[in-house]
Amino acid sequence: MWLFIILTQLLAMMSSGILYGFIKPKQRLAKTALVLSVFVINNAFLFYGLSEFWHERFHVYLVVSILQGFMFYAGLITAVITLVYLYILKKKYHPILIRAVAAVVYAGLVGLTVFNAYSPVVHHLKVTTDKPLNKPMQIALVSDTHLGRWFGNRQIDKMVKLIDAQSPDVVVIAGDVMNDSTDAYDNTNMHEHLSKLRAPLGVYATLGNHDYSGNQVAIAKAVERAGIQVIDNKSVWLDDSVLLIGRSDETDPARPAATELLSEVRADKPVIFLEHSPADLAQIKGLPIDLHLSGHTHGGQIFPLTTLLKWFTPLVYGAKQLEGTQFLVTSGYGIGAVPFRLGTRSEVWLITLTGQAGS
Fold first, then answer.
1. 359 has a pLDDT exceeding 60
2. Which residues contact 8 (CB under 8 A, 6 or more apart)?
3. DSSP labels for 307-329?
4. Nearby residues of 115 by Cβ (< 8 Å), 6 or more positions away
Protein backbone atom coordinates (compact mmCIF):
# COMPACT_ATOMS: atom_id res chain seq x y z
CA MET A 1 0.00 0.00 0.00
CA TRP A 2 2.85 2.38 0.86
CA LEU A 3 4.29 1.76 -2.59
CA PHE A 4 1.16 3.15 -4.23
CA ILE A 5 1.06 6.12 -1.87
CA ILE A 6 4.64 7.04 -2.80
CA LEU A 7 4.01 6.36 -6.49
CA THR A 8 0.95 8.63 -6.46
CA GLN A 9 2.93 11.54 -5.04
CA LEU A 10 5.67 11.05 -7.62
CA LEU A 11 3.07 10.96 -10.40
CA ALA A 12 1.50 14.14 -9.02
CA MET A 13 4.90 15.88 -9.07
CA MET A 14 5.57 14.72 -12.62
CA SER A 15 2.10 15.67 -13.85
CA SER A 16 2.36 19.09 -12.22
CA GLY A 17 5.67 19.70 -13.99
CA ILE A 18 4.38 18.59 -17.38
CA LEU A 19 1.13 20.57 -17.11
CA TYR A 20 3.06 23.58 -15.83
CA GLY A 21 5.25 23.49 -18.93
CA PHE A 22 2.26 22.93 -21.21
CA ILE A 23 -0.05 25.61 -19.76
CA LYS A 24 2.63 28.02 -18.51
CA PRO A 25 0.49 29.86 -15.94
CA LYS A 26 1.76 33.39 -15.30
CA GLN A 27 0.06 34.38 -12.06
CA ARG A 28 1.29 33.00 -8.78
CA LEU A 29 -2.23 32.01 -7.74
CA ALA A 30 -2.70 30.06 -10.99
CA LYS A 31 0.59 28.26 -10.46
CA THR A 32 -0.36 27.28 -6.91
CA ALA A 33 -3.85 26.21 -7.97
CA LEU A 34 -2.44 24.01 -10.74
CA VAL A 35 -0.08 22.13 -8.43
CA LEU A 36 -2.62 21.77 -5.61
CA SER A 37 -5.36 20.55 -7.95
CA VAL A 38 -3.11 17.84 -9.38
CA PHE A 39 -2.18 16.58 -5.91
CA VAL A 40 -5.80 16.73 -4.68
CA ILE A 41 -7.15 14.86 -7.71
CA ASN A 42 -4.39 12.23 -7.57
CA ASN A 43 -4.89 11.54 -3.89
CA ALA A 44 -8.67 11.48 -4.26
CA PHE A 45 -8.30 8.65 -6.79
CA LEU A 46 -5.74 6.99 -4.51
CA PHE A 47 -8.12 6.91 -1.54
CA TYR A 48 -10.94 5.78 -3.81
CA GLY A 49 -8.79 2.94 -5.11
CA LEU A 50 -7.48 1.86 -1.73
CA SER A 51 -11.05 1.58 -0.44
CA GLU A 52 -11.34 -1.52 -2.65
CA PHE A 53 -7.74 -2.65 -2.92
CA TRP A 54 -6.98 -4.63 -6.10
CA HIS A 55 -10.65 -4.67 -7.11
CA GLU A 56 -12.89 -2.47 -9.27
CA ARG A 57 -12.24 0.86 -7.54
CA PHE A 58 -8.52 0.21 -7.48
CA HIS A 59 -8.64 -0.45 -11.20
CA VAL A 60 -10.00 3.06 -11.73
CA TYR A 61 -7.03 4.41 -9.79
CA LEU A 62 -4.69 2.37 -12.01
CA VAL A 63 -6.29 3.82 -15.14
CA VAL A 64 -5.70 7.37 -13.90
CA SER A 65 -2.12 6.56 -12.94
CA ILE A 66 -1.31 4.94 -16.28
CA LEU A 67 -2.78 7.89 -18.18
CA GLN A 68 -0.32 10.07 -16.28
CA GLY A 69 2.47 7.66 -17.17
CA PHE A 70 1.58 8.16 -20.81
CA MET A 71 2.04 11.91 -20.22
CA PHE A 72 5.65 11.11 -19.37
CA TYR A 73 6.08 9.08 -22.56
CA ALA A 74 4.48 11.86 -24.60
CA GLY A 75 6.80 14.37 -22.96
CA LEU A 76 9.87 12.34 -23.90
CA ILE A 77 8.69 11.88 -27.49
CA THR A 78 7.90 15.59 -27.78
CA ALA A 79 11.33 16.46 -26.39
CA VAL A 80 13.02 14.31 -29.04
CA ILE A 81 10.89 15.85 -31.80
CA THR A 82 11.73 19.33 -30.50
CA LEU A 83 15.47 18.62 -30.51
CA VAL A 84 15.32 17.32 -34.07
CA TYR A 85 13.22 20.31 -35.10
CA LEU A 86 15.61 22.86 -33.55
CA TYR A 87 19.08 21.39 -33.97
CA ILE A 88 18.87 19.13 -37.00
CA LEU A 89 16.27 20.89 -39.12
CA LYS A 90 17.53 24.26 -37.82
CA LYS A 91 14.03 25.67 -37.38
CA LYS A 92 12.96 28.51 -35.16
CA TYR A 93 11.41 27.66 -31.79
CA HIS A 94 7.60 28.01 -31.79
CA PRO A 95 6.14 27.26 -28.33
CA ILE A 96 2.55 27.03 -29.55
CA LEU A 97 3.58 24.51 -32.23
CA ILE A 98 5.50 22.44 -29.69
CA ARG A 99 2.49 22.37 -27.37
CA ALA A 100 0.27 21.29 -30.24
CA VAL A 101 2.70 18.48 -31.07
CA ALA A 102 2.70 17.38 -27.41
CA ALA A 103 -1.10 17.25 -27.34
CA VAL A 104 -1.24 15.28 -30.59
CA VAL A 105 1.45 12.85 -29.41
CA TYR A 106 -0.38 12.24 -26.14
CA ALA A 107 -3.75 11.72 -27.83
CA GLY A 108 -2.15 9.43 -30.39
CA LEU A 109 -0.38 7.40 -27.71
CA VAL A 110 -3.57 6.88 -25.70
CA GLY A 111 -5.49 6.07 -28.88
CA LEU A 112 -2.90 3.48 -29.87
CA THR A 113 -3.05 1.75 -26.49
CA VAL A 114 -6.84 1.54 -26.63
CA PHE A 115 -6.71 0.29 -30.23
CA ASN A 116 -4.25 -2.44 -29.25
CA ALA A 117 -6.53 -3.50 -26.39
CA TYR A 118 -9.74 -3.73 -28.38
CA SER A 119 -8.58 -4.70 -31.88
CA PRO A 120 -7.40 -8.32 -31.68
CA VAL A 121 -5.30 -10.14 -34.24
CA VAL A 122 -4.92 -13.84 -35.07
CA HIS A 123 -1.47 -15.46 -34.92
CA HIS A 124 -0.59 -18.87 -36.35
CA LEU A 125 1.75 -21.57 -35.10
CA LYS A 126 2.50 -24.98 -36.62
CA VAL A 127 3.57 -27.72 -34.22
CA THR A 128 4.79 -31.09 -35.50
CA THR A 129 4.99 -34.13 -33.26
CA ASP A 130 6.69 -37.44 -34.06
CA LYS A 131 3.58 -39.28 -32.84
CA PRO A 132 0.91 -40.60 -35.22
CA LEU A 133 -1.96 -38.27 -36.05
CA ASN A 134 -4.32 -39.14 -38.90
CA LYS A 135 -5.00 -35.51 -39.81
CA PRO A 136 -3.85 -32.09 -38.56
CA MET A 137 -5.78 -30.72 -35.60
CA GLN A 138 -6.60 -27.01 -35.50
CA ILE A 139 -6.57 -25.57 -31.97
CA ALA A 140 -7.74 -22.04 -31.17
CA LEU A 141 -6.15 -20.61 -28.02
CA VAL A 142 -7.50 -17.63 -26.10
CA SER A 143 -6.61 -16.50 -22.62
CA ASP A 144 -7.18 -13.75 -20.08
CA THR A 145 -10.52 -12.53 -21.41
CA HIS A 146 -11.11 -10.89 -18.00
CA LEU A 147 -14.79 -10.41 -18.68
CA GLY A 148 -15.91 -7.48 -16.58
CA ARG A 149 -16.55 -3.73 -16.55
CA TRP A 150 -14.40 -2.78 -19.55
CA PHE A 151 -14.50 -6.01 -21.52
CA GLY A 152 -17.85 -7.56 -22.32
CA ASN A 153 -20.37 -8.48 -24.99
CA ARG A 154 -18.83 -6.65 -27.94
CA GLN A 155 -15.48 -8.25 -27.29
CA ILE A 156 -17.03 -11.70 -26.85
CA ASP A 157 -18.88 -11.33 -30.16
CA LYS A 158 -15.66 -10.26 -31.88
CA MET A 159 -13.82 -13.23 -30.37
CA VAL A 160 -16.48 -15.68 -31.54
CA LYS A 161 -16.37 -14.18 -35.03
CA LEU A 162 -12.57 -14.36 -35.20
CA ILE A 163 -12.48 -17.96 -34.01
CA ASP A 164 -15.32 -19.06 -36.29
CA ALA A 165 -13.44 -17.61 -39.25
CA GLN A 166 -10.50 -19.95 -38.48
CA SER A 167 -12.74 -23.08 -38.32
CA PRO A 168 -10.79 -24.73 -35.48
CA ASP A 169 -11.43 -28.30 -34.37
CA VAL A 170 -11.22 -27.32 -30.70
CA VAL A 171 -11.07 -24.12 -28.64
CA VAL A 172 -9.11 -23.85 -25.39
CA ILE A 173 -9.15 -20.99 -22.87
CA ALA A 174 -6.11 -20.64 -20.64
CA GLY A 175 -7.61 -19.02 -17.56
CA ASP A 176 -8.77 -15.66 -16.21
CA VAL A 177 -12.06 -16.03 -17.98
CA MET A 178 -13.57 -13.36 -15.73
CA ASN A 179 -12.21 -10.42 -13.82
CA ASP A 180 -12.63 -11.64 -10.22
CA SER A 181 -16.40 -12.22 -10.20
CA THR A 182 -19.50 -12.92 -12.29
CA ASP A 183 -21.11 -9.57 -11.43
CA ALA A 184 -20.63 -7.82 -14.77
CA TYR A 185 -21.10 -11.13 -16.60
CA ASP A 186 -24.52 -11.62 -15.03
CA ASN A 187 -25.63 -7.98 -15.13
CA THR A 188 -25.01 -7.59 -18.87
CA ASN A 189 -26.14 -11.08 -19.93
CA MET A 190 -22.75 -12.13 -21.28
CA HIS A 191 -23.94 -15.73 -21.10
CA GLU A 192 -25.97 -15.27 -24.26
CA HIS A 193 -22.86 -14.15 -26.13
CA LEU A 194 -20.26 -16.51 -24.64
CA SER A 195 -22.48 -19.53 -25.28
CA LYS A 196 -22.05 -18.91 -29.02
CA LEU A 197 -18.44 -20.05 -28.78
CA ARG A 198 -18.44 -23.53 -30.31
CA ALA A 199 -16.10 -26.04 -32.00
CA PRO A 200 -16.58 -29.59 -33.36
CA LEU A 201 -14.43 -31.19 -30.64
CA GLY A 202 -15.59 -28.84 -27.91
CA VAL A 203 -14.54 -25.75 -25.96
CA TYR A 204 -12.43 -26.26 -22.83
CA ALA A 205 -11.10 -23.94 -20.15
CA THR A 206 -8.91 -23.86 -17.10
CA LEU A 207 -9.30 -21.19 -14.44
CA GLY A 208 -6.74 -18.49 -13.66
CA ASN A 209 -5.76 -16.46 -10.62
CA HIS A 210 -8.56 -13.92 -11.21
CA ASP A 211 -11.03 -16.81 -11.36
CA TYR A 212 -9.60 -18.22 -8.12
CA SER A 213 -10.44 -15.02 -6.28
CA GLY A 214 -13.00 -16.52 -3.92
CA ASN A 215 -15.64 -16.79 -6.64
CA GLN A 216 -14.19 -19.79 -8.48
CA VAL A 217 -17.26 -21.98 -7.93
CA ALA A 218 -19.64 -19.38 -9.35
CA ILE A 219 -17.29 -18.62 -12.25
CA ALA A 220 -16.85 -22.31 -13.10
CA LYS A 221 -20.62 -22.82 -13.07
CA ALA A 222 -21.19 -19.81 -15.32
CA VAL A 223 -18.54 -21.04 -17.76
CA GLU A 224 -20.03 -24.54 -17.80
CA ARG A 225 -23.53 -23.16 -18.41
CA ALA A 226 -22.14 -21.43 -21.51
CA GLY A 227 -21.20 -24.84 -22.91
CA ILE A 228 -17.52 -24.61 -22.01
CA GLN A 229 -16.08 -27.54 -20.10
CA VAL A 230 -13.81 -26.59 -17.20
CA ILE A 231 -10.98 -29.14 -17.06
CA ASP A 232 -9.04 -28.03 -14.01
CA ASN A 233 -7.00 -31.11 -12.99
CA LYS A 234 -8.82 -33.26 -15.53
CA SER A 235 -8.04 -34.75 -18.91
CA VAL A 236 -10.14 -35.37 -22.01
CA TRP A 237 -9.50 -37.19 -25.28
CA LEU A 238 -10.00 -35.14 -28.44
CA ASP A 239 -11.26 -37.33 -31.26
CA ASP A 240 -9.64 -40.30 -29.46
CA SER A 241 -6.30 -39.15 -30.86
CA VAL A 242 -4.99 -36.25 -28.71
CA LEU A 243 -4.99 -36.06 -24.91
CA LEU A 244 -5.86 -32.63 -23.52
CA ILE A 245 -4.86 -32.13 -19.88
CA GLY A 246 -5.95 -29.14 -17.82
CA ARG A 247 -4.53 -27.90 -14.54
CA SER A 248 -5.84 -25.34 -12.07
CA ASP A 249 -4.02 -22.11 -11.35
CA GLU A 250 -1.06 -21.96 -8.96
CA THR A 251 -3.26 -19.97 -6.54
CA ASP A 252 -5.40 -23.10 -6.05
CA PRO A 253 -4.29 -24.68 -2.73
CA ALA A 254 -5.29 -28.11 -3.99
CA ARG A 255 -3.40 -27.88 -7.28
CA PRO A 256 -1.56 -31.11 -8.05
CA ALA A 257 1.90 -31.44 -9.54
CA ALA A 258 1.92 -31.83 -13.31
CA THR A 259 3.21 -35.39 -13.00
CA GLU A 260 0.06 -36.39 -11.09
CA LEU A 261 -2.08 -35.58 -14.14
CA LEU A 262 -0.24 -37.78 -16.63
CA SER A 263 -1.85 -41.14 -15.81
CA GLU A 264 -3.66 -41.32 -19.18
CA VAL A 265 -0.64 -40.37 -21.27
CA ARG A 266 0.19 -42.86 -24.01
CA ALA A 267 3.51 -43.00 -25.84
CA ASP A 268 1.80 -43.01 -29.25
CA LYS A 269 -0.66 -40.14 -28.65
CA PRO A 270 0.10 -36.38 -28.66
CA VAL A 271 -0.41 -34.57 -25.35
CA ILE A 272 -1.57 -30.97 -24.89
CA PHE A 273 -1.22 -29.41 -21.44
CA LEU A 274 -3.38 -26.36 -20.70
CA GLU A 275 -2.98 -24.09 -17.68
CA HIS A 276 -3.06 -20.42 -16.86
CA SER A 277 0.55 -19.59 -16.02
CA PRO A 278 3.89 -20.58 -17.60
CA ALA A 279 5.60 -20.40 -14.19
CA ASP A 280 6.36 -24.15 -14.08
CA LEU A 281 8.16 -24.27 -17.41
CA ALA A 282 11.26 -25.82 -15.82
CA GLN A 283 9.23 -28.71 -14.38
CA ILE A 284 7.09 -29.22 -17.51
CA LYS A 285 9.86 -29.31 -20.11
CA GLY A 286 11.11 -32.76 -19.13
CA LEU A 287 7.67 -34.42 -19.17
CA PRO A 288 6.00 -36.34 -22.03
CA ILE A 289 4.04 -33.27 -23.16
CA ASP A 290 4.05 -32.19 -26.80
CA LEU A 291 2.36 -28.80 -26.48
CA HIS A 292 2.04 -26.56 -23.42
CA LEU A 293 -0.41 -23.65 -23.66
CA SER A 294 -0.73 -20.79 -21.17
CA GLY A 295 -1.28 -17.06 -20.74
CA HIS A 296 -1.33 -14.97 -17.53
CA THR A 297 1.58 -12.65 -18.35
CA HIS A 298 -0.34 -10.47 -20.85
CA GLY A 299 3.08 -10.24 -22.51
CA GLY A 300 3.73 -7.45 -20.03
CA GLN A 301 0.72 -5.58 -21.55
CA ILE A 302 2.22 -2.10 -21.14
CA PHE A 303 5.82 -0.99 -21.72
CA PRO A 304 8.16 -1.13 -19.78
CA LEU A 305 6.59 -4.23 -18.17
CA THR A 306 6.95 -5.93 -21.56
CA THR A 307 10.71 -5.83 -20.90
CA LEU A 308 10.87 -5.99 -17.11
CA LEU A 309 8.83 -9.21 -16.87
CA LYS A 310 11.54 -11.05 -18.78
CA TRP A 311 13.65 -10.84 -15.63
CA PHE A 312 11.08 -12.69 -13.52
CA THR A 313 9.21 -15.02 -15.89
CA PRO A 314 10.75 -18.00 -17.74
CA LEU A 315 8.75 -17.19 -20.88
CA VAL A 316 6.85 -13.91 -21.04
CA TYR A 317 5.41 -14.25 -24.52
CA GLY A 318 5.52 -16.32 -27.68
CA ALA A 319 6.61 -19.80 -28.70
CA LYS A 320 9.65 -21.68 -27.48
CA GLN A 321 10.72 -25.31 -27.83
CA LEU A 322 12.45 -27.00 -24.91
CA GLU A 323 13.40 -30.67 -24.59
CA GLY A 324 10.72 -31.88 -26.99
CA THR A 325 7.91 -29.71 -25.63
CA GLN A 326 6.55 -26.76 -27.60
CA PHE A 327 5.58 -23.93 -25.25
CA LEU A 328 3.27 -21.11 -26.24
CA VAL A 329 2.43 -18.16 -23.99
CA THR A 330 -0.23 -15.83 -25.35
CA SER A 331 -0.47 -12.18 -24.36
CA GLY A 332 -4.21 -12.76 -23.99
CA TYR A 333 -7.40 -11.62 -25.60
CA GLY A 334 -8.58 -9.32 -22.81
CA ILE A 335 -7.11 -6.41 -20.90
CA GLY A 336 -7.21 -7.18 -17.20
CA ALA A 337 -7.47 -4.22 -14.86
CA VAL A 338 -6.81 -1.45 -17.39
CA PRO A 339 -8.03 -0.94 -20.98
CA PHE A 340 -4.58 -0.23 -22.46
CA ARG A 341 -1.90 -2.16 -24.33
CA LEU A 342 1.45 -0.66 -25.29
CA GLY A 343 3.95 -3.01 -26.88
CA THR A 344 1.38 -5.84 -26.95
CA ARG A 345 -1.94 -6.43 -28.65
CA SER A 346 -5.07 -8.44 -27.93
CA GLU A 347 -4.83 -11.76 -29.77
CA VAL A 348 -6.07 -15.24 -30.63
CA TRP A 349 -3.71 -18.07 -31.57
CA LEU A 350 -4.49 -20.80 -34.09
CA ILE A 351 -2.20 -23.80 -33.61
CA THR A 352 -2.00 -26.51 -36.27
CA LEU A 353 -0.89 -29.75 -34.63
CA THR A 354 0.42 -32.32 -37.11
CA GLY A 355 1.81 -35.81 -36.61
CA GLN A 356 3.53 -38.45 -38.68
CA ALA A 357 0.52 -39.06 -40.88
CA GLY A 358 -0.16 -35.35 -41.26
CA SER A 359 3.39 -34.18 -41.86
1. no
2. 42, 43, 45, 46, 65
3. HHGGGT-S--SEEEEETTEEEEE
4. none
